[in-house]
Specification:
Helices cover 32% and strands 29% of the residues. By secondary structure, the protein is an alpha/beta fold. The protein has a six-stranded mixed β-sheet, sandwiched between helices. It binds adenosine-5'-triphosphate. The site of adenosine-5'-triphosphate has 11 residues, from strand 2 and helix 1. Residues 5-231 form the ABC transporter domain.
Length: 303
């Protein structure tokens, strides 16, 4: 599978703290990749390294076949970047802003720009500084989508967008990503939105890559397990490898099987809980999976 963006053992630190620690992951062509992680996990740092806005301490990043440190203006013209709170020329009107961006990109699609302006209801004569946060985000998005970048890098793109616009935006991205040459990497705290959008998941925690996997396969190998005991549970018993994020409440024990395979699972249940009939097994949402994986690591590091 082709990759448009790939991190190779990248480490990065600000003064003493490591923001990325030997991180390797990829963004396949034709994919929408979600970059997830708790606050401070290193998501924005990773995206800035990909754009050569920050230099890594070690390792390297390949962007559209080029080392990110050697990107030339031609490569940059093939990448779109929008980040929450990014610097925009606030003194310009939307017309002036888009007019200023247009000549920078030879492949700028004026017809598509018109469609985006209409879809995002952008008032051309209004200065960027007089727009709401959501409207400013839409203007920034229009300014990168209009040149149809091959790689779209979005850092918290949903903040400030109302539910209707989020829906339109997500449909638009899904349409664009049908082209094999296009890929999106999106970092977001909004896991419900990302769940609808992403087909590849990268999870960062404390600067380390925890998961880098196709979303369907990832969800297929995680299961929420619930066991009702005949008696009150005093403490959680030792569990099988891969059973994470265990919690008990009264007679109920819940945990996540992070490497689910039914024969192995049933054998482990018989061995560990011989007195219990078959437990309840449910699929997980991406949000539940995120919480289980991150809290499992928090317990590990607290221990
Ligand atoms: N300019 C900076 N100077 C010093 N430390 C920084 C700087 N920028 C980020 N960090 C630190 O690097 C780590 C990773 O930060 P980063 O912004 O990449 O995380 P993030 O996953 O994007 O977080 P969030 O979800 O909160 O936006 C954090 O510990 C953060 O405090």
């Amino acid at each position: 599978m082709n990759t448009l963006l790939e991190f190779h053992e990248v480490s990065c630190r600000y003064s003493r703290a490591w923001a990325l620690d030997n991180a390797s992951f990829r963004v396949p062509s034709g994919s929408i990749t979600a970059l997830l992680g708790p606050n401070g996990a290193g998501k924005s740092t990773a995206l800035k390294i990909a754009l050569n806005l920050i230099r890594p301490y070690s390792g390297h990043v390949t962007v559209l076949g080029t080392d990110s440190r050697n990107m030339n203006p031609k490569t940059l013209q093939r990448i779109g970047y929008v980040a929450d709170g990014m610097d925009l020329p606030l003194w310009m009107t939307i017309d002036q802003f888009l007019g200023w961006c247009r000549p920078l990109y030879p492949q700028w699609d004026t017809e598509f720009e018109r469609t985006l302006r209409k879809q995002f209801e952008l008032p051309g004569d209004r200065k960027l500084k007089h727009l709401s946060r959501g409207q400013r985000m839409k203007a920034a998005l229009a300014s990168v989508l209009a040149y149809r970048p091959e790689l779209l890098i979005l850092d918290e793109p949903f903040s400030g967008l109302d539910p209707l616009v989020r829906d339109e935006f997500i449909s638009g991205l899904l349409e664009l990503s049908e082209s094999e040459k296009f890929a999106v990497v999106v970092s977001s705290h909004d896991i419900e939105e990302v769940d609808r959008l992403a087909d590849h998941i990268v999870l960062l925690n404390d600067g380390k890559v925890v998961l880098d996997e196709n979303a369907e396969e990832l969800l297929a190998r995680h299961r929420l397990v619930e066991i009702m005991f005949p008696h009150y549970i005093e403490s959680i018993p030792p569990l099988a490898p891969g059973w994470i994020s265990a919690k008990s409440s009264g007679r109920l024990l819940r945990f996540v099987d992070s490497d689910h395979e039914i024969t192995r699972f049933s054998e482990n249940v018989r061995k560990i809980f011989p007195e219990i009939p078959q437990p309840d097994i449910h699929p997980l949402t991406l949000r539940e999976l995120f919480v289980a994986q991150v809290s499992a690591r928090k317990v590990g590091s607290d221990a």
